[in-house]
Amino acid sequence: MLRLERISKDLGEFKLTDVSLDIGQGEYMVILGPTGAGKTIILETVAGIYPPDSGRIELNGEDITFADPKDRNISMVYQDFMLFPHLSVFDNIAFGLSVRKVPRDEAERRVNEVAEIMGISHLLRRSVTNLSGGEKQRTAISRAIVMEPDVLLLDEPLSALDGKTRERLRKELKRLHTRYKTTVLHVTHNFEEVFSLADRVAVINEGRIIQAGEPDQVFSKPESHFIAEFVGTTNIF
Fold first, then answer.
1. Which one of 70, 131, 166, 190 has the lowest number of neighbouring Cβ atoms within 10 Å?
2. pTM above 0.90, yes or no
3. 183-188 and 28-32: which strand pairing?
4. Per-residue DSSP letter, 184
């Protein structure tokens, strides 16, 4: 389980204020909110990029609030891929395994398995500079999940892709989650990603979580005027 207890972080233009959230083992949690609401700061604080100004982060019962990022067993994928241009698709995916000195045969097995799920087995020997946007994002997600992280953080991973590619990648993310049962924290402002992927959704605005629950509950019974307008409720009383 991943637990955030009253996390606050002020970065000037962006901030979090008393964010508390529990994500169960193997749960796919989506954080939904407008641009600038603080979604990415939550991920980067969980990943250890920023220490919180106050509050506590627990992973599987262990306090990781100030743990070094490399010691958290958490993987993160941004929307802009961040691949190594001088490496092949295979070597990009296997990079973290080589850093951990995973035996070559085990690394090959794990890379081939995740590449098959993500539909990029035929690209493993290709340079990443010759890939489409969707193929690059599949490679980035594969590189993250092959590490078998306790938590996978996804920062709007589909937002830079065209509509057809987004739809395909949503299905592949669903298959990936079904196979690995990894705890996922996925931030977006796209409603389709909520309904196709999320076990639960949390809505954030101006650095605060203002409602959390199952997607149908949040969308059909918004607890504030902001949420009602944001999710497109027709009748607001």
1. 70
2. yes
3. parallel
4. E
